[in-house]
Design goal:
Elements (H helix, E strand, L loop, with lengths): L20 H6 L17 H6 L12 H4 L10 E7 L4 H14 L5 E8 L6 H4 L7 E5 L6 H11 L4 E5 L3 E3 L4 H10 L3 E10 L6 E3 L4 E5 L5 E5 L2 H6 L8 E2 L8 E4 H6 L13 H11 L3 E13 L20 H9 L5 H7 L11 E9 L2 E4 L10 E4 L9 E4 L4 E3 L2 E5 L6 E7 L9 E4 L4 E4 L4 E4 L9 E4 L9 E5 L3
Parallel strand pairs: 1-2, 1-4, 2-3, 6-12
Antiparallel strand pairs: 4-11, 5-12, 6-7, 8-9, 10-12, 13-14, 13-16, 13-24, 14-15, 16-17, 17-18, 18-19, 19-23, 20-21, 22-23
Enzyme class: transferase
EC number: 2.4.1.-
Family: Belongs to the glycosyltransferase 2 family. GalNAc-T subfamily.
Length: 478
């Protein structure tokens, strides 16, 4: 007996397989002699070469590949906002959602065009099945654009994606399953890195959680040893996370509205991930990273868009959010620090400067050494740990209870880690030259990395050398 399957497409729409990629992408290709990075801050030439349905490596843990997901999950509206996105990247995002998701779980893809220069960037994609396009009549920024998309959504669950993503196999089911079990959960996939230069998949570590530093910049944190031990029996268990990256997450639509959506006074881009993460945790919800969900994302080193009026003018009153916090009976930030992110070290009242001590792309690092060990530099990972330091008011450079110590007060002498002692002149340091150098008080020599590869950091005669330039993540005095 022959069984016929009918694939219904709305009149005027086409299946993604029938969309003319060459015509759509070809209209905006980089011309000979043009900079392929100029418009998007990633290599548009390489992006444009890729097919919209290119194969990507399955980066999931083996356990995920044999897991059966529930079939009666709620459908989702996928909201994707963009401003002047490369057409090839935007198209791959849309196609990957349709190709990699069970059809009954994606009710619609809502593209919110935040006043891109060319309206057809989004309008032409509106021909694809399930795709709806909303265009702002002026620049609104990420938060207001996402809220507009969420307000238009007709499914019970919202999925937010950036406009330069590629979804992996069975990415959606594990996210929807967790939200269906508890509507106050906000869940995020593991975000695989797509190289901005050649668009190859780099992957991502599966033992990271989201965090932030005291400049209020998102960073990835390694799970604590206790957290890793607890997961040994189930490496694909959800990961409780203090913070989500913000570009890719799923949450119940009713809960999103109840929680206050986004702060509509926030402009352009940035900081919304911290704000919504704090709000979820403090107001009764939880955040999780779901290891069986993997989505690739192009990470850029620069913003490809402008901040109208300048980035320093995007501050606004938070009075309405404070009133909402009171109305929802949310817990104080102190509760968040003590119960959600206790491993985040709060700067002490004795600290002058705090965080990583950076020199270019490298940071001062204990290299895993303890008392009487040398220190060196290592690529900055922004995860604290061996790279977390404090300069105190009593002029100590501390890592936990160990201090940078000058054993021999002569140029070329190695720096050692030794237990901090209150009045030890060998451990006294001060910032000089607009906080760009660390000078040892007792010898007037400066912390120097020139010999780092040959044995460790040293003190040397102070000079303009780049090996003596150091910058703390956070300076608490000017």
């Amino acid at each position: 007996m022959c069984v016929c399957v009918c694939v219904c497409v709305h009149p005027g729409k086409v299946r993604w397989q029938d969309f003319d990629q060459d015509l759509y992408v070809g209209a905006t290709v980089v011309r000979p002699g043009q900079d392929p990075y100029a418009r998007n801050k990633f290599n548009q030439v390489e992006s444009d070469k890729l097919r919209m349905d290119r194969a990507v490596p399955d980066t999931r843990h083996d356990h995920c590949r044999h897991k059966q997901w529930k079939s009666d999950l709620p459908a989702s509206s996928v909201v994707i906002t963009f401003h002047n996105e490369a057409r090839s990247a935007l198209l791959r995002t849309v196609v990957s959602v349709l190709k990699k998701s069970p059809p009954h779980l994606v009710k619609e893809i809502i593209l919110v065009d935040d006043y891109s220069d060319n309206p057809e960037d989004g309008a032409l994609l509106g021909k694809i099945e399930k795709v709806r396009v909303l265009r702002n009549d002026r620049r609104e920024g990420l938060m207001r654009s996402r809220v507009r998309g969420a307000d238009a959504a007709t499914a019970p669950v919202l999925t937010f994606l950036d406009s330069h993503c590629e979804c992996n196999d069975h990415w959606l089911e594990p996210l929807l399953e967790r939200v269906a079990e508890d509507k106050t959960r906000v869940v995020s996939p593991i975000i695989d890195v797509i190289n901005m230069d050649n668009f190859q998949y780099v992957g991502a570590s599966a033992d990271l959680k989201g965090g932030f530093d005291w400049n209020l910049v998102f960073k990835w944190d390694y799970m604590t040893q206790e957290q890793r031990r607890a997961r040994q029996g189930n490496p694909i268990a959800p990961i409780k996370t203090p913070m989500i990256a913000g570009g890719l997450f799923v949450m119940d639509k009713e809960y999103f509205e109840q929680l206050g959506k986004y702060d509509m006074m926030m402009d352009v881009w940035g900081g919304e991930n911290l704000e919504i993460s704090f709000r979820v945790w403090q107001c009764g919800g939880s955040l999780e990273i779901i290891p069986c969900s993997r989505v690739g994302h192009v990470f850029r080193k620069q913003h490809p868009y402008t901040f109208p009026g300048g980035s320093g003018t995007v501050f606004a009153s938070i009075q309405s959010r404070l009133e909402m916090k009171k109305r929802l009976n949310c817990k104080p930030f102190k509760w968040y620090l003590e119960n959600v992110y206790p491993e985040l070290r709060v700067p002490d009242h004795q600290d002058i400067a705090f965080g990583a001590l950076q020199q270019g792309g490298n940071c001062l690092d204990t290299l895993g050494h303890f008392a009487d060990g040398v220190v060196g530099v290592y690529e900055c990972h922004n995860a604290g740990g061996n790279q977390e330091w404090a300069l105190t008011k009593d002029k100590s450079v501390k890592h936990m209870d160990l201090c940078l110590t000058v054993v021999d007060r002569t140029a070329g002498s190695l720096i050692k880690l030794q237990g901090c002692r209150e009045n030890d002149s060998r451990q006294k340091w001060e910032q000089i030259e607009s906080n760009s150098k660390l000078r040892h008080v007792g010898s007037n020599l400066c912390l120097d990395s020139r010999s780092a590869r040959m044995g460790g950091l040293t003190v040397e005669v102070c000079s303009p050398s780049l090996t003596q330039q150091w910058k703390f993540t956070l300076n608490l005095q000017s």
